[in-house]
Amino acid sequence: MNRTTQNKKDKLISIIDKYDNLIVAFSGGVDSTFLLKVAREVLKDNVVAVTARSPVHPERETGFTKKFAKSLRIKHIMMQSREMKSSDFVVNTKERCYICKKMLAQDLLKLASEIGINNIAHGANVDDLHDYRPGIKAAEEMGIIAPLVDADMTKKDIRILSKKMSLDTWNKPSMACLASRIPYGTPITDKALNMIDLAEQFVLGLGFISCRVRYHNDLARIEVSPGDFKKIFDEKTRLAIINKFKDIGFLYISMDMEGYIQGSMNRSLAFRHLG
How far apart are CA 95 and CA 50, in angstroms? Predict the structure, then answer.
């Protein structure tokens, strides 16, 4: 680990230390796990983890948050989020993430007021600022702080420091909500989200480190690392995926020849304007 990365952690500690108490929006990903761990070390019992629960969040991630918060002996609140009740969200325009994060921020602010917490943080890092992330704008508007951004931390910094701190998430693949697998303009439904979740869970259960199942109505488009192409085209594995995906409800199963690319569904924004 180079000195620059350590300096960034020192800066993060000084930022967090300015707060009397803190809610950390805890998704169980690399960034929020690291942030929660550091916040716990700095603020002791004055930090609370809050995890949103809804059909857009994979159940496997929710299970991890419970175990990790328990391991830290930290107060952990599971909060049912409301985005699936919003017609503006489910219609799935390019502002989907903005709408979802704004609703979540509203609920977090209400909760914070009820339990006497003055500050709420989320796990955005500086790399997130270089992609289309309207949710970050919503968080800023609602007064949600981003300590990792303020400390100038990149995903690489966070992974390096997480490994040094013996966090199992140091090499965990990036995670996004299941709605990100659905093309803009295609309505978000409980059925579609459940199909995506079941399909990804099955592929990951076969030993793949990362996987995205992009939803195109009757067609599933699988993204895995190019290094896993040989593995996924093994005849036994291929047939198992085909049979399982058809049981789930997909009529057609395809492989993306580029492999997994984070944020690939945002490409359409360069070609068309939605909502």
Answer: 24
Q: List all residues 6 or more positions away from 185 whose beta carbon is below 8 Å from its beta carbon.
A: 92, 93, 274
3-state secondary structure of 22: strand
Task: List, in sequence order, every residue forming a beta bridge with 216; answer none if it has no partner.
Answer: 219
Report helix angle 155-164 to 30-43, nearest 10. 60
Residue with tokens 């339990």: 115
Question: pLDDT (tens digit, 9 = 90+) per residue, 166-180?
Answer: 999 999 988 889 999
Task: Give me the residues paired with residue 80 across strands.
Answer: 53
Domain ranges of the chain: 3-171, 178-270
The fold of the 3-171 domain, in CATH, is: Rossmann fold (3.40.50)
Rounded to an integer, what distance in angstroms lies between the CA atom of residue 131 and that of residue 59?
26
**Multiple choice CATH, 178-270, 1.10.287, 1.20.1050, 3.30.460, 3.30.70:** 3.30.70
Q: pTM score, two decimals?
A: 0.90
**Which tens digit of pLDDT belongs to each residue from 53-86?**
999 998 888 889 999 999 999 999 999 999 999 9
Local structure of 8: helix, strand or coil: helix
Q: Name the pairing type of β-strands 22-25 and 120-121.
A: parallel
User: Do 180 and 159 form a contact (C-beta atoms < 8 A)?
Assistant: no
